[in-house]
């Protein structure tokens, strides 16, 4: 039985639907990430799951009990959960008392409170700051205190809303370290909303993609990032080569797709005549100056249209009769003297292509 | 000008020598204002919380109404209390007219809107995410409300001090329902009013200095609180 389950969960604000028919099952001990762009409804869904808001329709089940309505049952269920908000608020008291609040509200003994708070502060690396006024903490420190405050009550479910948004890379890495430790060492179920795709991939075992208030796809990070179920999901997870074409030939599961007059070979279940999107991740494309001798079934000659340096990588846009985007390291780009107008060969394997049927 | 200077010197002498009459009047003023403010605070803190933490029809109108009463003239309240406590009034049998209790009742009515309105504003000033954070961490509604009140404590204390300032400085109400009876209901403000009309400017100035000193202490306390 799932620890947390929603059935046709929906939420409206001022008559406008924000969430539609969300059906989720989250097992105990699972690390589940909700990914989606800003405004997709991630926070709204987390608030409903944490029982902070009451849904317009649908149900939330926690440990097999319907906790959708109001009343004592919700408080009891909520006391088995914790929520770290996107912009956590610290109370006007010192760090120790901030972390101790949840335990005191549960009327735990002073000695227990002291032990648990000390251990939570140590876990997040804030044990030196226990007497400090919480309002004087930096963004990263505040986030770590918020995580300690949420963890100190030993929740069965920990909700995290954009846990590292607004943090610098060093603080982000520290917070992620703490979260990775929790996931490794504790049996806490973690449900995390993030628009940072890579973070979702790093920290979760299952991902749900939320777009315009609807769950579009649920799967392992591998499935979501390599086999997105729709064009919208593909765009969200960073597949930048999305080529529209038609299957013109099929032999076993090897299909030939006509894209703007060019034939692309892919492994697919689609049938001849189907309209498809061929998805190719930029990192699966190899760029060479000479005709490659590899086993790649797809080799296209083209001219470089644009070169953009992005951090340690360089993005190369090639016009092969259809646009293709590849990435190489900065050093490879310099070594191959890749520049706009240069003739290159772009090659990729048939297995590197994921197809989506355009007709559903 | 010489007369005024002599008045100031004599006033300082009265204060330094802890003149029994001056001290008695000042003590009574402080006691009456503190009592009325204390009782009003005991009513306003829970009432203000009740209004803030609950949604009901007409809430905005009620808050506007409370704020309107911030500047109600003291004589209007004096008249109201007078009507109720006078021998022919509905509470005349209690015999409270021209007693310190009548002044406390009047001052309570005077400062209640101030303390109540400013308490509501103080609670409204607390980030809405704060009680929500508390609830998400397992607090029930009462625990979340207590935390919110705790967060607003300095602003609420400011409201009480403002009320105290208003109570100690009013004159019309104390005159009307206290009667300015020497040794019984005479306060700093009523004494200043009386002594000035009698021409005893030294006593008036001495009491005036004490009143201004109290105002100064209140202001310093307010500034300190606002800086926290």
The geometry of chain B reads as globular
Count of separate DSSP helical elements of chain B: 11
Q: Compute the CA-based radius of gyration of chain A.
A: 25 Å
Oligomer: heterodimer
SSE pattern of chain A, N- to C-terminal = EEEHEEHEHHHEHEHEEHHEEEEEEEEHEE
Shape of chain A: globular
In CATH, the architecture of chain B is Orthogonal Bundle
Instruction: List low-confidence stretches of chain B.
Output: none
Largest pleated sheet of chain A: 6 strands, mixed
Helix content of chain A: 25-40%
What's the CATH class of chain B, please? Mainly Alpha
Explain the overall architecture.
The complex is a heterodimer of chains A (360) and B (228). Chain A is α+β, with helices and mostly antiparallel strands and 360 residues long. Chain A contains ten helices and 20 strands. In chain A, helix 3 crosses helix 4 (110-123), helix 4 crosses helix 5 and helix 5 runs parallel beside helix 6 (169-185). Chain A is globular and about 75 Å long. Chain B is mainly alpha-helical and 228 residues long. Chain B has helices spanning 2-16, 20-53, 59-68, 74-85, 100-124, 129-136, 141-151, 153-169, 172-178, 188-198, 201-227. Chain B has one domain (2-227): MetI-like fold, CATH 1.10.3720.10. Chains A and B meet through helix 3 of A and helix 6 and helix 7 of B.
